[in-house]
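input
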Amino acid sequence: MNKSTVKCLKEWSTRTRKKTKFINHYCFIPLVIIIVLNSEPNQRYLNSSPPSKLKS
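output
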C-alpha cells in the first residue's frame, strides 16, 4: 500500500470512531434510559434481591 492509501484509512478510521461515539452518547444511551424509565418495574426482580444494609 502506498502512503496515501494508509493516510486515507487512518482518516476514515478516525471519522468512524468519532461518529460512533456521537451516536452512542447522544442517541443510544438516552434511548435506553427512556425505555427503562417508561417500563414498569417487575416485582419478581425487585423482591428477589435482598435489601442492602449499610454498615455504620
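quick obs: The radius of gyration is 22 Å.
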